[in-house]
Amino acid sequence: MSKQALWTTDAMEQAMAAECSGALPSDVFGISIDSRTLAPGDAYFAIKGDVHDGHDFVDAALKAGAALAVVERAQRSKFAEDARLLIVEDVLEGLRQLGRAARARLGGQVIAVTGSVGKTSTKEALRGVFAAQGLTHASVASFNNHWGVPLSLARCPADARFAVFEIGMNHAGEIEPLVKLVRPHISIITTVEPVHLEFFDGIEGIADAKSEIFAGLEPGGVAVLNRDNPLFGRLIDNAGKAGVGRIVSFGADAKAEARLIDVALHPDCSAVHANILGHEVTYKLAVPGRHIALNSLAVLAAAELAGADLALAALSLSQVAPAAGRGVRTQLDLGASGTATLIDESYNANPASMAAALGVLGRAEVGAQGRRIAVLGDMLELGPAGPELHRGLAEAVASSGIDLVFCCGPLMRNLWDALSSGKRGGYAGSAAELESQLTGAIRAGDAIMVKGSLGSRMKTIVTALTKRFPDKAAHDDAAV
Question: Which tens digits make up the pLDDT trace of 225-259?
């Protein structure tokens, strides 16, 4: 069966008001902004990034099989006269225009997700739930910013039944232009927490910035909001000012329309009993944690509102695995002594997600001599409150029953100083410097959770551990 075209070249030309150059193909099968990963038949957009200018890689993209490249007029002279090009004034704006055209032709249900914590995991759960019921498109990874959202839109097939987009921000004013591109039928705010405080006067400002998602909601659309969050009232007020006609709340609160009745938290999964818009459902989640259980209520509410089968949606949640860097578990092979469990939470961190991850670690299974070990890097963009918020994690460490804590980074020094001597595993100025201390301390039966903000580079520790102690299952498969 032949691959279905994503765009005709004529439609792209019209959407972007572009000028054609060279012998262009009639169809394009994908959209790419990375010459290293594009597939043959993709259209390559030469985006200018913070570090690289995509125009420097146009020739490589065309040689790799790109159907065409989208370039700015000012740089046209860099390329051969017969190069396969669509020429625009500004490439990023061209991508936005293509995203608008993609949204205009889309007849399916569109869902947008934002929130201080849980955006990506909720988006991935929505992807899994909807994919079982019809053609579903969703943002890749965390493509939730000024280029990620239009790129995700431009990649959306015209015949998708469901489309899910993640929308992020760290400054006021960032969500509104993105959600006006997406124009969702359903908008979800997972929660509002003290994140990116460096750029806001307080958490109320964060709530107002998240509320920008209401600005693009389609007429008759629904906002799905966390009733358990202290900022729920402010979000309701903001939704009213934006003209949102219907609010559906979720949470453990007795007034929530998507209500948690009971949850059984297990080391590697959760069992949930809930009432979703009048329908009682019981289901299993493959990802552990109360915070995951609460966000699953929003997922099922969105599924019901979007016209999906609720029972099948609940069943599908048992198949949704954690996204990379957000709770993926690996069995580390320590040789003759046994194995240890690595929980990779290295993608990002803030006070709320850090406390949630410590809670998950606290329920992780350990061996007879094993310990629950937290390896924590700095939480960034917290402004003047940063030192105190890091010290405050000592309470979550204690309440979660964590045995040992390794810290790295200047802000995590505040937590290190607040820990009792028995909890201190090791401290270093950076993730790279902490590697050897941690590697030498691990023993069979341990459960090790690694977490920190992206800028703390905690992924280097995860990489070091998996290299030093290869995954047990992969090692066994290789031996076979």
Answer: 999 999 999 999 999 999 999 999 999 999 999 99
Residues forming beta bridges with residue 281, ordered by sequence position: 274
Could you tell me the domains of the chain?
7-88 (3.40.1390.10), 106-319 (3.40.1190.10), 328-479 (3.90.190.20)
Find the mean pLDDT for residues 214-220.
97
* Position 197 confidence tier, pLDDT thresholds 50, 70, 90: confident
Q: What end-to-end distance do the CA atoms of the chain give, in Å?
A: 35
Encode 136-171: b = buried (16+ Cβ within 10 Å), e = exposed.
bbbbeebbbbebbbbbbbbbbbbebbbbbbbbbbee
Distance separating alpha carbons of residues 356 and 456, to the nearest angstrom: 19
The angle formed by the CA atoms of residues 300, 306 and 312, to the nearest 5 degrees, is 50
Taking residues 114-119, what's their average pLDDT? 93
Alpha-carbon gap, residue 336 to 420, rounded angstroms: 33
Strand partners, 223: 187, 247
- The pLDDT assigned to 2 comes to 59
Query: How high is the pLDDT of residue 50?
Result: 83
pLDDT at 480 over 60: no
CB-CB contact of 72 with 91 (8 Å): yes
Write down the mean pLDDT value for the chain: 95
DSSP labels, 127-164: HHHHHTTS-EEE--TT--STTHHHHHHHT--TT-SEEE
User: Stretch 370-374: mean pLDDT, rounded?
Assistant: 98
What CA–CA distance (Å, rounded) separates 195 from 217?
A: 24
Backbone angles phi, psi at 328, to 5 degrees: -65, 135
User: What's the rounded Cα separation, in Å, for the pair 365 and 359?
Assistant: 13
Give yes or no for a contact between 249 and 274, defined as CB atoms under 8 angstroms apart: no
Q: CA 142, 144, 150 angle in degrees (round to 5)? A: 125
Of 194, 221, 219, 224, the residue nearest 209 (C-alpha): 194
Distance (Å, whole) CA 470 – CA 335: 10
Distances (CA, A) of 159 to 4, 13, 32, 163, 313: 11, 20, 20, 10, 21
274 Rama class: left (phi>0) / alpha (psi -120 to 50) / beta = beta
> What pLDDT shows up at residue 360?
96
CB 447 within 8 A of CB 423: no
d(CA 454, CA 122): 19
Number of residues that this document lists for the chain: 480
- Give the separation between CA 193 and CA 201, rounded to whole angstroms: 13
- pLDDT at residue 152 is higher than 70: yes
